[in-house]
């Protein structure tokens, strides 16, 4: 056990140095001096940016400081217990060490999430593809999978717009996931998900292949939001009656809102807020996120063209296959990570797939 504790301490120290947390503490001190200045809030946009930067830096330092303290405590207790040959204490300490190692693994994974918007909430859309009723049911299965993953992560999920399938699942559904690093993790799920199974909707029990497209965007913070300028003349805004699963009316007023950005033909809808004004505000936030994502993708495509890379079309970007018949297998085609525990994955156990993807991005 002593060797394991020493290895963990060395890993924590290496991560501390890699993240340059000593300098981060100096940065926090500088930011706090700025925040205490009498004229700090004169420029509110700048003030919010500095405040958020200070808050994020403090959170990062605090979690690693807490981890360092836990490792030091384990070292001290192990030394005393070994001298006294206290087997009961050593057994409890072994469990504690395992728990702290898991914390380290989770924090170490978060060091891979350093993208500009990785800390943000995530806007997720699922669209049923080829496969008719089976594809709509598959979209519903993916929705359940993501819901369970979000719940296990301690985040919150709110449905913004849904178009239920005639027999099962969804034609499409859009939701927001609120939580620290939600976009950083969920961005790994963007792309086409393929399902192979015996169709429950086929009387002859034939094997069917279904597809669903998952789109993931960051919800923009105030500063990024202001970078997206939309001319009101470029918008067409329609209102309609909200409807829930099975075509049931959510309310009796035309509170649902559909906004079309005419130059890009980008369409967003929101129907789940209480009023038309709230639905309109939410739809505008989603529209800005979509347009921002479009800008980012266009920039990436330009760079890829310069580098000679080929970019697959939206529906050609198949990222993962879920095979339920004739054998059980979930395989990520980007990382080659796979598992035979299909039910665990469909039940929201996505962490290992996400970790494999994030590590592959660092290598690339």
TrEMBL record:
PTM comment: the record says: Methylated by PrmC. Methylation increases the termination efficiency of RF2.
Domain (Peptide chain release factor): residue spans on this chain: 79-189
The molecular function GO annotations come to:
translation release factor activity, codon specific
Q: What is its main location?
A: cytoplasm
Query: Which segments of the protein form a coiled coil according to its record?
Result: 83-110
* UniProt keyword terms in alphabetical order: Coiled coil, Cytoplasm, Methylation, Protein biosynthesis
Cellular component GO terms held in the UniProt record? cytoplasm
Is Nucleotide-binding among this UniProt entry's keywords?
A: no
Where in or outside the cell is it found? Cytoplasm
Tell me if Coiled coil is a UniProt keyword of this record: yes
Q: Which residues carry this modification: N5-methylglutamine?
A: 248
Q: Which InterPro entries match?
A: PCRF, Pep_chain_release_fac_I, Pep_chain_release_fac_I_sf, PrfB
UniProt xrefs under NCBIfam families: prfB
Note the HAMAP family from the entry.
Answer: Rel_fac_2 (MF_00094)
UniProt lists the family membership as follows: Belongs to the prokaryotic/mitochondrial release factor family.
Function, as annotated: Peptide chain release factor 2 directs the termination of translation in response to the peptide chain termination codons UGA and UAA.
**Record-given protein name:** Peptide chain release factor 2
- Species annotation: Candidatus Uhrbacteria bacterium CG_4_9_14_0_2_um_filter_41_50
